[in-house]
Amino acid sequence: MRVPEQDAAESAPQVVSAFLERRKEQIAQRWADAPLFRSVFTVSRDEAVEACKAVVDALSDVAVSGRLENITAPGFTPVRDQLGRMSQTRTRTGSTPAQIADEVAGLRVPVVDLLREEFTDPTTAQAQECVMALTLLLGTLRLVVMETALDANAELIERQRQQLLEVATPVIKLWEGTVAVPLIGTLDSARSQVVMESLLEAIVDQRARYAILDITGVPTVDSLVAQHLMKTVAAARLMGAECIVSGIRPAIAQTIVQLGIDLGSVLTRASLSDALAYALGKQGIEVSRADTGASAR
Amino acid sequence: MQSSGQASATSLPIGSDADLAWVRQQVRQCAAQLGFGLVQQTKLVTAASELARNTLVHGGGGRAEITPLDNGRSRGLRMSFIDNGPGIRDMELAMTDGYTTGGGLGLGLSGAKRLVHEFSVDTEPGRGTTVTAVAWVAQVPASRPGVG
């Protein structure tokens, strides 16, 4: 798009768009030296220049569509990935969101200077309007960069949440026929579902007759947690395994009683070792000191 | 609500399971700061968990307000759980052990009441529900006779 002469009737965004197209090379050259691009595209300067050009193209597209303040403008779509990668790289190297925002803001001055040079008299109303439009556009770019950075963070948090679900529920084989799940953290519906599934699977795989649910690491046992525990115990029982809930601390025991939860149907022990001793005893396994006679195993 | 010269209330949103965890953490932290013992902390956190879940499940979300109290003799903690949900039609039934409309154990309201010292429910069908629970540091719960 070549518009050498500015038509007076042309709107400011269109002038800005044409200007961005025309001076793409110079703008990219100036931006490539800005910290935002220079520190991200470290392989070669050409790479940085290409990245700058892509951003200039996007800004030009957005300007021509006239939606200067719209951060969801389709013009930004082609560079969203690139901007996301850039902000991620800056975050990894220790920049705070505020610093990244400042760096994006730093892109404004070189372009606005170039735009001012376009006008013989930069004090005319049209020139002012164009500078205003460009400033607005770059403000929107700043928001788009921040938005992509936030999106990336939200995605990361969601992924970590999923990982936590799986990581935090290992099923441990304590002895032949005895498995244990040390529960740690909040036992919400999603977690308890994962616990139940992995426990039932382990009962089948290990041909376990005894399953121990240790809640030492669960800070709060409310009625929902208790219900989840009871359901897990009932399911394990259906699979032919006896379930023992261990690790009930004094404060939790008092709370459960006052809350009115009836855990009478559930076998409980104060500690994991008590629960293991119970399970071993039921299987006729006796553990004793080596020096008192027969070997322990 | 009379809150003479108290430290300001903390307002926490209740809109998801993650928010419940946050409410529990904040209550635990606040209770520890006020000098509640471990057992009382656990009771308070458990009560908060029950009531906040009610706000989420039955009230469709809302907010929790945690206010430190000081009546001169003792320090305490007030927790309010506020929603604009359908309200509770039959208070007596709702406070009955084992009565549930949400598929739970039906111990949320009644159980939480036993875990704190003062408990009140302000509700009207269609106008939402506010449940307020207060506990004081080192005070034997009213339901138990004071034994040494």
TrEMBL record, chain A:
Pfam families listed in its UniProt record: STAS (PF01740)
CDD domains referenced in this protein's UniProt entry, alphabetically: STAS_RsbR_RsbS_like
Protein name: STAS domain-containing protein
Transmembrane spans: none
Keywords assigned: Phosphoprotein
Location of the STAS domain: 168-279
PANTHER family: RSBT ANTAGONIST PROTEIN RSBS-RELATED, RSBT CO-ANTAGONIST PROTEIN RSBRC
InterPro entries listed in its UniProt record: Bact_StressResp_Reg, STAS_dom, STAS_dom_sf
SUPFAM superfamilies cross-referenced by the UniProt entry: SpoIIaa-like
Keyword flag Phosphoprotein: yes
Taxonomic superkingdom: Bacteria
Automatic annotation (TrEMBL), chain B:
Gene3D superfamilies for this protein: Histidine kinase-like ATPase, C-terminal domain
Pfam families: HATPase_c
Annotated transmembrane regions: none
Entry-linked InterPro entries: HATPase_C_sf, HATPase_dom
Residue span(s) of domain Histidine kinase/HSP90-like ATPase: 39-139
Protein name (record): Anti-sigma regulatory factor
Organism: Streptomyces argyrophylli
